[in-house]
């Protein structure tokens, strides 16, 4: 059953004999009532979406006071402090699935979030930074066919326009791997990675990380995640330990296990660069 060009549901009937004219008319009427109900819902949803799009545009342009006033008029809670900006995309055929997945996500509904389709197949999101926000966006991308995206790091809302430009740059430069969410800190290697998605490069990355994958087996410790956090924080022990929620001595122990397993010197900048590239390329 379709509404506004999209499949919205299915109606299945099963019986041993065919339908007589009266029964067929009854089924047709039920279908019409369902599509009429969807049309009624759309009549309410579409104006609200236009309002959110206007509010999102004002936010992304850096007009913070205007956005706050507009949010009060529209009765839409507006993020105001530390935020993330995200750009999510799908082929046009799945645009409705993406919009609904973001709008109806329970985790996003619990924080101040502005969601709007900025053009067909592209959804902009500004949300209050919160624990687990990146995982929430990643989960949405996994639910929608062929979805991918880019997200900023937590940033003061006054820096939102600059972060939005970076998000768009990462989205445009990164590969179109389904379900992948890039972060703006990936800007320096997103364009390069786009040219390294060969089978040989991925095989190299998997081979480099294979000893750590083996180390993970039978262990409660995620050594790959430990390495990713360590490299992502430029090898800073305190920052890496904080990101993982562990003591710095625990981090040092884990990193020594990783270094011994790989037989690599992790103080070597070249070794760190190769491991970071392997983490970005590997199929986990």
From TrEMBL:
Domain PucR C-terminal helix-turn-helix per the UniProt entry, residue ranges: 224-281
Pfam families: HTH_30
Domain of life: Bacteria
Listed PANTHER family: CARBOHYDRATE DIACID REGULATOR (PTHR33744), DNA-BINDING TRANSCRIPTIONAL ACTIVATOR ADER (PTHR33744:SF1)
InterPro entries reported in the protein's UniProt record: CdaR-like_regulators, PucR_C-HTH_dom, PucR_C-HTH_sf
Gene3D superfamilies in the cross-refs: PucR C-terminal helix-turn-helix domain
Annotated protein name in UniProt: PucR family transcriptional regulator
């Amino acid at each position: 059953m379709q509404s506004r060009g999209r499949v919205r549901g299915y109606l299945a009937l099963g019986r041993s004999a065919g339908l007589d004219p009266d029964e067929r008319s009854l089924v047709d009427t039920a279908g019409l009532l369902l599509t009429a109900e969807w049309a009624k819902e759309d009549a309410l949803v579409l104006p609200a979406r236009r309002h959110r799009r206007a509010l999102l545009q004002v936010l992304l342009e850096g007009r913070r006071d205007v956005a706050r006033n507009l949010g009060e008029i529209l009765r839409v809670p507006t993020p105001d402090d530390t935020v993330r900006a995200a750009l999510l995309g799908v082929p046009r055929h799945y645009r409705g699935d993406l919009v609904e997945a973001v709008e109806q996500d329970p985790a996003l509904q619990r924080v101040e979030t502005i969601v709007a389709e900025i053009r067909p197949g592209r959804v902009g999101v500004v949300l209050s930074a919160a624990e687990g926000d990146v995982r929430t966006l990643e989960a949405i991308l996994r639910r929608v066919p062929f979805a991918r995206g880019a997200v900023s790091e937590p940033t003061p809302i006054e820096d939102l326009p600059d972060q939005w430009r970076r998000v768009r740059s990462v989205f445009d430069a990164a590969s179109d791997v389904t379900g992948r969410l890039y972060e703006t800190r990936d800007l320096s290697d997103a364009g390069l990675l786009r040219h390294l998605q060969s089978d040989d490069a991925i095989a190299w990355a998997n081979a480099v990380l294979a000893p750590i994958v083996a180390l993970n087996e039978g262990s409660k410790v995620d050594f790959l995640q430990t390495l990713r956090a360590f490299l992502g924080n430029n090898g800073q022990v305190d920052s890496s330990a904080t990101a993982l929620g562990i003591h710095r001595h625990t981090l040092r122990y884990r990193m020594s296990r990783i270094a011994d397993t790989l037989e690599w010197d992790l103080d070597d900048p070249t070794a760190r660069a190769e491991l970071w590239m392997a983490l970005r390329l590997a199929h986990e």
